[in-house]
Amino acid sequence: MVDPQLAPVIGMVFSYTAVAVGIIFAGAALGSALGWGLICSKYIEGIARQPEMLPILRVQMFVTAGLMESFPFIAAAFAMYFTFVNPFEAAAVAAITHVAH
Known about the structure:
Number of strands: 0
Strand content: under 5%
Radius of gyration: 22 Å
Shape: rod-shaped
Largest sheet: none
Low-confidence stretches: none
Mean pLDDT: 88
């Protein structure tokens, strides 16, 4: 049974966590989109300057793109951790019960 005084605080913790998770996903999407744009634009510039470097630039582009694509997955892992485990809930309940007693 949840203490009636804790219910609004727990609701606030979950709502703020939901907002933070949305910001995390938005940042990951924006970072990924900007990264892909920069990688592809530099790839095209490199081909325009030295067309004979096409095979080498292609390999380097895909290696860099693969490394860049790990960022949204790491952000998604943190977002899922905050969504399902939510370490802030236990901390808020502990702080309130400590102050109340």
